[in-house]
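Subject: sequence -> C-alpha cells, single chain

Hey, anyone have a minute? Need the predicted structure for the following. Not urgent.
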Amino acid sequence: QSVLSKFSVITQERIPLQRNHKNPFYYDAFYLDRLAQIVKIKIRDQILVVINVHLEAYDAETRKEQTKKLVEIYGKYSANFPTILLGDFNSDIAYKNATIKLIMDIPGIGNAVFNPKNNVKTFSSEKPTVRLDYIFFNSNRIQYLDGSVLNEFGQASDHLPLKMKFKLK
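Reply:
Had a minute. Here:
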C-alpha cells in the first residue's frame, strides 16, 4: 500500500489498525496488516492530506472498530487541511450493517465515483460483484470535478482502481 505523487511528500505515517483478536495465534504469521497510511503532500501553497486505508476483510466487528478509528483520524486532519480518505474499506453499502456508512455519514464528506443508484462494483477485478473501494474528501476544501472506476487495465490487481479529478478550494 503506497501513495505516489508528482508533488513533494512532506511526511508519511503508518498507523496499524486493530487486529482481529478472534484469529488463532498462527494466523498472525500470515496476517496482512490493516492500516491507515497518512501522507502530507505540498501542492503549491497548500498541504493535502491523503489517508490511504486497507481494512479488515473477514471480521465485521473488527472492521467496525477500524472504521471508527478512521472517522477519528479523518476528523483530526479534515478540520485543518484538504483531506482525501481512500482505499479498500472491505465494506459494500449493500451489506447488512455496512461499516462504510460510518464514513458516509460524516457531515460535509464528499464521495467520489459513487452513486447509490448506479453502484459500480470494484471487486473482484475479473468479475466485480461488490463495491469495496471508495474515495472520500472534505467538500469544504476540495472540489470534485470528475471520476471513474477504471476497468480498462484488465487484472492488474484483485480490485479495480478508482480515479478522481479534483481541485483544491
